[in-house]
Amino acid sequence: MWKKFKDSYFFYSFKRDPVAVVSFIVFVILIILSISAPFIAPYNPYDTTGIDIMDSELPPSWLQGGEKRFFLGTDTQGRDLLSTMLYGLRVSVVIGCGAVILQAVIGILIGLVSGYTGGRIDAFLMRMADVQLSFSTLMVAIFISAIFQLAFGVGRYEDMAVPLLVVVIGLSEWPQYARTVRASVLGEKKKEYVEAARIIGLPSFHIMRKHILPNSMSPVLVISTVQIANAVMSEAALSFLGLGMPVTKPSLGSLINAGFEYIFSGLWWITFFPGLVLVIFVVVVNLLGDWLRDVLNPKLYKG
């Protein structure tokens, strides 16, 4: 299988695109850092016994007043910023990937049913998608997060922050998948292999799952890469507004929020470094998504 992959047009195109190669390497490094945070982070930001408030607001080690044990400095709670960023990156990646999986499942299912059945079902499902798209993703996420905090309290919200954000962001973005999959299904269901499957008496669900869906996955892969970046940005925006991850459970967004009010008082590193990691992650994911879109669409690819 590996030999077949190395000889494929996909891998050949990837090798010839330096931007895609560099973006993929940076993306893999960030994912490895996020996964291995508990093993490589100098400190555990969740361990309150190892945090000293007297160490708060220390600058990076190479600046005056910094200490060698805190390479990127500390935040306002006295936590090592490097360790907190690694754990925060892991939280942001988990939320981003989880939200994309949820919105993909919902969107693909709705898009398949809508495109294949047509008629009133198609009209109803697409009107639902249109209503969802008429509201911004951030507005829907803010609305749901605010209701949950009012209904269950801030303490309960902190315990359920990660799964809740996955659900909130996932429910906000499913129309992107639904409309894309529906468009692909409308083109595929008129082809001969689908007609042949109907003639031999295969059930509709089997035709959608085994025949139409595999041939409609190319645009889904492209959307998924872009949506991961969007989901991470949505989490960061919600955390920045105080409706995402709490300060006690760091994510890139909550770290940016925690340091933003101090940025003009000289504590620039608390916001700058998490913001830099967030920008790098979003940029490399978007670059990979653009390359993948071009490769899967031969009319656009010029490699």
UniProtKB/TrEMBL annotation:
Ranges that cross the membrane: 21-41, 91-113, 133-154, 267-289
Pfam families: BPD_transp_1 (PF00528), OppC_N (PF12911)
Keyword Cell membrane set for record: yes
PROSITE patterns on file: ABC_TM1 (PS50928)
An annotated GO BP: transmembrane transport
Ranges of residues in domain ABC transmembrane type-1: 89-289
Keywords, alphabetical: Cell membrane, Membrane, Transmembrane, Transmembrane helix, Transport
GO CC, alphabetical: plasma membrane
Membrane topology according to the record: Multi-pass membrane protein
Main location: membrane
InterPro entries according to UniProt: BP-dependent_transpt_permease (IPR050366), MetI-like (IPR000515), MetI-like_sf (IPR035906), OppC_N (IPR025966)
Cellular compartments annotated: Cell membrane
Stated family: Belongs to the binding-protein-dependent transport system permease family.
Alphabetical list of PANTHER family matching this protein: ABC TRANSPORTER PERMEASE PROTEIN (PTHR43386:SF26), OLIGOPEPTIDE TRANSPORT SYSTEM PERMEASE PROTEIN APPC (PTHR43386)
Protein name: Peptide ABC transporter, permease protein
Organism: Desulfonema limicola
The organism's taxonomic lineage, starting at the top: Bacteria, Pseudomonadati, Thermodesulfobacteriota, Desulfobacteria, Desulfobacterales
